[in-house]
Amino acid sequence: MSDQIKEMFGRVATRYDLANHVLSWGMHHRWRRRAVALAEAATGMAVCDCASGTGDLALEFRRAVGPQGRVIGTDFCKPMIALAVPKATRNNLPVAYTVADVLTLPFANDAFDVSCIAFGIRNVDDPARGLIEMARVVRPGGKVVVLEFGQPDGPLFGPLYRWYARRIMPAVGGWLSGRRSSYSYLSDSAAAFPSGSAFIDLMRQTGAFRAVKSEPLTGKVAYVYVGEVV
What we know:
The protein is α/β, with parallel strands linked by helices. The protein has a single domain (about 1-230), classed as Rossmann fold, CATH 3.40.50. The protein has helices spanning about 1-25, 25-40, 55-65, 80-90, 125-135, 155-175, 180-190, 195-205, and strands at about 45-50, 70-75, 95-100, 110-120, 140-150, 210-215, 220-230. The chain has a seven-stranded mixed β-sheet, with helices on both faces. The protein is globular.
């Protein structure tokens, strides 16, 4: 499955940012800023951004940790990293990028204060193992932060969002990227993936965290999950 996902993201890489912006109505930047705030990122911290894509979350963390800090972005999809590098340069926010899978991060134990992943954990072959690996590279007391799509409920917003996700997202994403099947997958995978209390349970079951909390965003369209590493 991982090779198929890698190929899919490689095909849409050049239109990925535009599609994200249009399909989220620009809210994905706000969600990332909230993830950084809940991580309690501070000047001088070291951050590992996993499944970094084109680097938006890595850049938000880079702003938070300042010149004294460091941010490393990883992704198993080389075409995504190829776009992240010049984006960091354009924004004058130095980030070190490397091609790596979240399941086998090439870093020592306790190397970072925070590890994070945005809209990527559901694409990992073994999400629990990915969380354990993210925790491994973070010092005790540090944070693992996950930003992921949720499943809005409620009598009005829930059905409206599900209609948007099933009908509009694949059509518009396909039109923007030329790959409708990729955006059908992204919509379907988000709908099927555990969210809210179910994902908190998954994090707790790993045994890697002494405490886990979450915050829903935009009517549960997305969630930020924060685990404090044992």
